[in-house]
Request: fold
Amino acid sequence: MIPPDLPSPADAGPAIRELGSAERRAAVEVINTAADWYREFLPPEELHSPEMDESGWDAEAERMTWWGAFSDRRLVGVTGSEPIGDVLLIRHLYVLPEHQRSGVAGALIRHIEEISPDSVGMIVAGTYTANYKARGVLEKSGYRPAADSERVLRAYYDIPEDRLLGSIAYVKRVDPPGRRSERRRRGVTG
Ligand SMILES: CC(C)(COP(=O)(O)OP(=O)(O)OC[C@H]1O[C@@H](n2cnc3c(N)ncnc32)[C@H](O)[C@@H]1OP(=O)(O)O)[C@@H](O)C(=O)NCCC(=O)NCCS
Reply:
């Protein structure tokens, strides 16, 4: 059962907050429901079903922060942020099919950018090369394919070789700390 969340104003997009372990079941359900889309482009032998189980969610929670997007108090999207040195990884971005294409993933990405520590100079997100939906939202959010994509994936992602070879890394540089603090003070985002 997901605890109630503050509703967001109608035009403000989903409410976003950190997820706790009590919400792992709902989060895993969102992930596995959304991951069904992989059947459309992955060969059966490369499908991992389920995409994530509850122990996998807990293991990930030890290295990263889980975030949830709520619409009408229902969890509709999840993602994770993992800092590694001066890089922040966006991981496990999933939105329930009936809530897709309404800006939920874009809002989660923006949230991670806004809360990123000043030490972060670059945000990295990896996805399947064939995943045009994920590539679309990343490009719309200002991310670009890394020139040295395979090296970036090998440096930051601990994923099976089959996934790595079929994936692409997207990167976005973030403002240096001084400019970021100034933007926060002025309430400027995006
Ligand atoms: C990828 C995903 C997270 C995007 O979530 P979303 O909330 O729909 O994304 P947003 O609404 O914020 O962004 C929409 C943009 O993404 C791209 N996009 C999303 N769905 C798309 C679709 N069905 N067809 C084409 N482009 C699509 C487009 O660029 C779109 O912009 P537009 O609507 O102006 O054309 C969602 O499709 C999903 O959960 N997919 C299954 C899991 C997955 O692939 N996760 C990525 C793991 S890295």
